Automatic annotation (TrEMBL):
EC number(s) on file: 1.2.1.59
GO molecular function, one term: NADP binding
Source superkingdom: Archaea
Keyword annotations from UniProtKB, A to Z: Cytoplasm, Glycolysis, NAD, NADP, Oxidoreductase
Active site annotation, chain numbering: C140
One Gene Ontology cellular component annotation held by this UniProt entry: cytoplasm
Record-given protein name: Glyceraldehyde-3-phosphate dehydrogenase
Amino acid sequence: VKAKIAVNGYGTIGKRVADAVQAQDDMEIIGISKTKPNYEAAVAHQKGYDIYAPASSAGAFEKAGMPIAGTIEEMVEKADLVVDCTPGGVGEENKPMYERAGVKAIWQGGEEHELAGFSFNAVSNYEGALGRDLVRVVSCNTTGLCRVIYPIDKELGVNKVRVTLARRAVDPNDIKKGPINAIVPDPIKLPSHHGPDVKSVLPNISITTAAMKIPTTLMHLHTVNMEVNTDCTAEDVKKIFGSQSRIRFVGQGIGSTAEIIEFARDMGRPRNDMWENCIWPESITVHEREFYFFQAIHQESIVVPENVDAIRAMMELESDGAKSIQKTNKALGF
Ligand code: NAD
């Protein structure tokens, strides 16, 4: 039998997690929740997902021609595990509901580490999530950083990491926030929260980060600087990154985030998703025991395969992290 998964909060992350779960052969979506019968709900309905909503919205869904299968509480009762993809800070309020129902729960990076007590990144700490009831899948930026820091630390030993993050201001569907013509140091007081967040997964890494918001919606761009404990060449670093299935080297004329997204479109990726870190191998430059590189991170999709692996670990469907990663990648079509 497949693990029964519910997605609470069918937005940017939730709709992608639902489709990714549905693509696996050891888990299935038993329902998704929407608060309003909007266009996203209509597509979910068309895809055949059972829609659950607050009892007070049942009439509105009925009127819109997409009758709900029940309330969010009822959805939670039917699931083995709920992936909470509600906006940051909202997920926290759902904890008592999950506890009452006795279901396992995953939260996203917008929630605090303490809510789940375990912050997850598949390549870094899959085994630690085995059988756990509560897990937090870290944010897009933290996921992108853990994927490069963990394997370098394993092979070369990381002494110190410094990162400057140019963050997309908003997701492409967001018409409310900006900036549209400014670069915003965010936060001005340094360091940014991204460094400490990496430490929620990799506690022994020394890392500091600075971040800014820039007027773009497509991807984040990281300038990563790592000081390592072993002499190495750019080729050594490339070899380590090249061994990672969730790192993709970009080149062949790709010189920007715009071209990466176009490439994802050309590959026929769902919603032009780029699940892998995109590293420019040409940017990898070694100076003494320190190296630099650029990587682009598709904020809307990078955490999606991580959520699938977190489910597999928590439900104990696979005890080996490397095998889960491979299985997830294959089912998604990496
Ligand atoms: P979103 O706003 O796109 O989607 C949230 C969805 O939850 C919306 O459909 C909203 O209607 C619904 N919702 C709101 N309150 C609800 C409630 N009480 N019950 C059920 N549904 C409710 O948000 P998102 O960008 O998908 O972010 C979700 C989480 O993922 C956050 O923790 C965020 O920090 C994290 N995250 C976001 C990104 C990103 O770049 N978008 C990347 C990684 C992680």
